[in-house]
Design brief:
The protein is of the alpha/beta class and 184 residues long. 35% of the residues lie in helices and 26% in strands. β4 (111-122) and β5 form a beta hairpin.
């Protein structure tokens, strides 16, 4: 009789979690350890809800809409996936970009994007391996002669240790939006 109640409780728990599971992207494989599955789903939900990034310290001066930027490569930035994430976000906003070495002067680049990004190493939950994560970044949009059009930053908001494990792209997306629109 007790095993029947456990089965009913598990089935009820699964039915309650089904809408959450269907709203999340990716795959989930059900195992014979339902409590472990519940813990994994709760972790994914927590990282999705607590890991929301936002732009901070935004400065925006009115300027013409930007359709093309030249990105000055920052050799001091240690975040390996920063440039691909940045270019993906710019591309999603219909802004073309190219990366150039520092000090290059081009007449064809009326708008430059300069950045700084910082990282740290730590162990993600339920892992025994260290992984890097971006802790902070600043993006500045400038004219060819150095006038600042916009600047915005990101800093890790360590909500119970889950926000830091979101992707670099999800962390800088609101910063790119703030630099392009002025809205934080």
């Amino acid at each position: 009789m007790a095993s029947r109640h456990i089965f009913c409780a598990r089935r009820g728990l699964l039915a309650g979690l089904l809408p959450s599971l269907l709203s999340m992207g990716g795959c989930t494989v059900f195992s014979s350890a339902p409590l472990w599955e519940v813990a994994k789903v709760a972790g994914m939900a927590a990282s999705n809800s607590l890991g929301q990034s936002k732009a901070i310290n935004t400065i925006y001066l009115p300027h013409e809409p930007v359709k093309q930027v030249c990105i000055e490569f920052n050799r001091d930035s240690q975040v390996a996936d920063f440039i691909p994430a940045l270019q993906a976000e710019l591309n999603a906003r219909a802004v073309q970009s190219r990366v150039y070495e520092p000090g290059v002067v081009l007449d064809t680049c009326p708008v430059w994007l300069r950045y700084q990004a910082y990282m740290q190493w730590a162990q993600p939950p339920l892992s025994d391996k260290y992984k890097f994560y971006m802790t902070a970044a600043t993006i500045t949009l400038q004219s060819g002669d150095g006038r600042i059009y916009a600047s915005s930053s990101y800093e890790t908001n360590d909500n119970f240790g889950v926000a830091k494990w979101t992707s670099t792209r999800s962390k800088i997306a609101p910063v790119v939006a703030a630099v392009m629109t002025g809205i934080e």
